[in-house]
Amino acid sequence: MADVAIVLVEDNADHRELIVAALQESCDPQRILAFDDGVEAIEYLLGRGPHKDRDARKQPRLVVLDMKLRRMHGLEVLKAMRDDPLTQSVPVVMLSASSDKEALDSCYEAGANSVVRKSLDYDELRRKMGQMYEFWVNVNEANRNSRV
Asked: What is the rounded distance in angstroms from the CA atom of residue 107 to the CA atom of residue 53?
């Protein structure tokens, strides 16, 4: 399997499918890993549970994280990432359907690198995902602490 460039965490199956399709226009599909649950994503990122054999020193270039998830809220996932040396420097883009300033501010306060509003318009979603991929994977220099 190719190195994972993007981990997507989105519990809504329809949204997840659209976001993955949009990302695949920019990124090799084998380099995108999607989870529908924050707990499962944390287990993968930290090399725990069913992912205990994964080299957790090797992190994706970007985590795209829905704010409202079942079982473990997106902000809880983000805080867990920021609290662990293995994932504290991995860029995280939060996805939110909300335009509430306090909700968006809470993402930045928890350590998000960016917040992107979800779009129901597929062309707009494609544009946003393409720009996000281009910046965080191709333009931005990865932090050496998030690389092996």
From this structure: 31
* Residue-range definition of the domain harbouring residue 80: 6-139
In a domain, residue 71? The reply is yes
Give the closest residue to 84 by CA, choosing from 111, 51, 115, 53.
Answer: 111
pLDDT digits (tens, 9 = 90+) for 100-139: 889 899 999 999 999 999 988 999 999 999 999 999 988 9
pTM (predicted TM-score): 0.92
Integer distance in angstroms from the first to the last C-alpha of the chain? 16
Which tens digits make up the pLDDT trace of 36-48? Answer: 999 999 999 999 9
CATH number at residue 65: 3.40.50.2300
d(CA 22, CA 2): 19
CB 4 within 8 A of CB 31: yes
In a domain, 47, yes or no: yes
